[in-house]
Write a structure and sequence with these properties.
Layout (H helix, E strand, L loop, with lengths): L3 E4 L3 H11 L10 H14 L1 H11 L13 H10 L2 H19 L6 E4 L5 E8 L2 E5 L3 H4 L4 H14 L3 E6 L9 H9 L4 E4 L2 H10 L9 E3 L4 H10 L4 E2 L7 E6 L5 H12 L6 E6 L2 H15 L5 H11 L1 E4 L3 H11 L3 E5 L15 E4 L5 H6 L25 E8 L2 H17 L3 H11 L3
Parallel strand pairs: 1-11, 4-5, 4-7, 5-6, 7-8, 9-10, 9-12, 10-11, 12-13
Antiparallel strand pairs: 2-3, 3-14
Helix pairs in contact: 2-3, 2-9, 2-10, 4-8, 5-7, 5-8, 7-8, 9-10, 11-12, 11-13, 16-17
C-alpha cells in the first residue's frame, strides 16, 4: 500500500500539517464559465433550457411534461420495493427524525419593568429544494442524502419541500429515491440534475418554482452552481471532498482503523483519510490491513488513489499532541480509537462529528445513528456546524417600547446617533417625546 508514514517532528510531517491547516478551497473553478452560462440560460429561457440540458446529458427523449414525477410513477415505485428495504428506510428515518426533533428552536420574549418587550421570532423559510445526485446513472441511489436533508426541513416546518435529481437515460428516477422522498414528506420531485437543476431551484421556471434554501451534495458543477447562487438563496455549505481523521493509541485495532480509512477513501480520489497514532506498530500494521482490505472493495481504484495521493499516517509522542493536532486540522469526521475516549472529548474543540470508541464506525453516522451526515469540510469545522433544522429556520427580532421606556432610553439613543452623525435617527426619538 502506497501510503506515507511520517513522524510529526520530521520536515515532511510538519509540512503536511501546514498544508492541512490551509486546505480550504473554493473547488475546481475550471467549470466556472460553463456553469455561469447554464445559470444565465435557465434564468432566461426556463423549462426549455432545463430540457435541452437533460436531453444532452441524461435522457435524450425527455420533454417538458416529463419533468415532474407523476403520482403513477410514485405508485409504480412502491410496487417495486421489497419489505426489507422499507423496514430499513423506516428505521433510519425514525432515528434521524428523533435526533433532529431536539434541534428545533423556540421563539422567546423577555420584558423589562419599564414596559419594553424584546424577543426573537423563529420561523421556517417558505420553501426548500433538495438536490440528490444521480449516483452512477441511478445504480447507486443516495437514499441517505434524501433522509439527512429532507427530515430537518420537515421538522423545521418548511411549507414547500421539493427534490430534484437527474433521470436515467430512460427518463426514470430510482424507485428507492421516490420512496425515500415520500418517507420525508416530499411529493414534489423533478427530473433535473447538475447545474441546470440548481438554476431552476434558484430562479424558478414555469414548471419548477424557485425555493429559498438549496441543500444536498453534488459534483463540481453542482458545487459551483450553488456557490454562484449563494446569497440569492441560502445553501447548506461549500463542501469539499470527504474527510476522516482517526486518533489511535497502542491499543487500537489496525483492522478497524484501515476499514474506516477506506470507507472515506472510496468516496472520491480526492478524499482525505488520515491516521494520527502514538504507536509505530499500529501504524505499520494499519498499512498491511489497508493493502489487504483494499483488494476486496468495489471501488478499490478510487480508494487506492485517494490513499496514495492524500492519505498520511502521522506518528506523535502522546495523545495530548494528537488531540491538539486534531483541533488544528478541524476535520469533518473525527474518530477517537483510544482507551477511554470520553476522557478526551472535552478537549475536542473543532470537528464536524466525533466518533468515540472502536465500535463506532463513521458509517453508522452516515446512515442510522441519527445525527446529520452533512458536515463541514476543508477545515471549516472551526466555524461551521452540521446541517440541521436551523438550516431551514430564520429569526426575526421583536422590539416593543412604551412611551415611558422610550423616555428612559432616549438620551442614550440620541447621544449615539449624534456621534454617528445620524441626526434623523435622533429626531425620530425627539419627535415622539415632544408630543403632548
Amino acid at each position: 500500500m502506497n501510503i506515507r508514514i511520517e513522524d510529526l517532528k520530521g520536515p515532511k510531517g510538519r509540512e503536511f500539517i501546514h498544508q492541512l491547516r490551509d486546505r480550504f478551497s473554493t473547488g475546481d473553478r475550471s467549470c466556472r464559465d460553463a456553469v455561469t452560462e447554464i445559470l444565465q440560460r435557465v434564468r432566461a429561457v426556463g423549462d426549455a433550457a432545463v430540457i435541452e440540458y437533460a436531453r444532452k446529458f441524461d435522457a435524450p427523449e425527455m420533454v417538458i411534461s416529463d419533468l415532474r414525477v407523476t403520482e403513477d410513477e410514485f405508485a409504480e415505485a412502491a410496487e417495486l420495493i421489497d419489505d426489507d428495504f422499507m423496514e430499513t428506510l423506516h428505521f433510519a428515518a425514525d432515528r434521524i427524525r428523533r435526533f433532529h426533533e431536539r434541534e428545533m428552536e423556540d421563539s422567546w420574549i423577555t420584558t423589562r419593568e419599564d414596559g419594553t418587550v424584546t424577543g426573537r421570532l423563529v420561523r421556517p423559510v417558505d420553501s426548500a429544494g433538495l438536490y440528490v445526485p444521480g449516483g452512477q446513472g441511478g445504480s447507486t441511489p443516495l437514499v441517505s442524502s434524501v433522509l439527512m436533508n429532507g427530515i430537518p426541513a420537515l421538522i423545521a416546518g418548511v411549507g414547500r419541500r421539493v427534490m430534484v435529481t437527474p433521470p436515467n437515460r430512460e427518463g426514470r428516477i430510482s424507485p428507492v429515491l421516490l420512496l425515500a422522498a415520500q418517507e420525508v414528506g416530499i411529493t414534489e420531485v423533478y427530473k433535473a440534475g447538475s447545474a441546470w437543476a440548481i438554476a431552476a431551484l434558484a430562479f424558478g421556471t414555469r414548471t419548477i418554482p424557485r425555493v429559498d434554501v438549496i441543500v444536498g451534495p453534488g459534483n463540481r458543477f453542482v458545487a459551483e452552481a450553488k456557490q454562484q447562487v449563494m446569497g440569492r438563496v441560502r445553501i447548506d455549505m461549500l463542501a469539499g471532498p470527504s474527510e476522516v481523521l482517526i486518533v489511535a493509541d497502542e491499543g487500537a485495532n489496525p483492522a478497524f482503523i484501515a476499514a474506516d480509512m477506506l470507507a472515506q477513501a472510496e468516496h472520491d480520489p480526492q478524499a482525505l483519510a488520515l491516521l494520527i497514532t502514538t504507536s509505530r506498530p499500529v501504524a505499520e500494521q494499519t498499512v498491511v490491513e489497508l493493502s489487504t482490505q483494499l483488494e476486496n472493495l468495489s471501488r478499490k481504484d478510487i480508494a487506492g488513489t485517494a490513499l496514495a495521493e492524500r492519505g498520511v499516517i502521522l506518528l506523535v509522542d502522546n495523545l495530548e499532541e494528537a488531540v491538539a493536532l486534531s483541533n488544528e486540522i478541524a476535520i469533518e469526521h473525527l474518530e477517537l480509537q483510544v482507551k477511554d475516549p470520553w476522557q478526551w472529548l472535552p478537549k475536542i474543540r473543532h470537528a464536524g462529528a466525533i466518533f468515540l470508541g472502536p465500535y463506532t464506525p463513521e458509517a453508522a453516522g452516515d446512515y442510522v445513528a441519527g445525527p446529520n451526515h452533512v458536515l463541514p469540510t476543508m477545515g471549516t469545522a472551526r466555524i461551521a456546524s452540521a446541517l440541521g433544522v436551523e438550516t431551514f429556520l430564520k429569526k426575526s427580532s421583536i422590539i416593543s417600547y412604551s412611551r415611558q421606556a422610550l423616555l428612559a432610553d432616549a438620551e442614550h439613543i440620541q447621544r449615539l446617533a449624534s456621534l454617528e452623525g445620524l441626526t434623523a435617527h435622533g429626531n425620530s426619538v425627539t419627535i415622539r417625546l415632544s408630543d403632548a
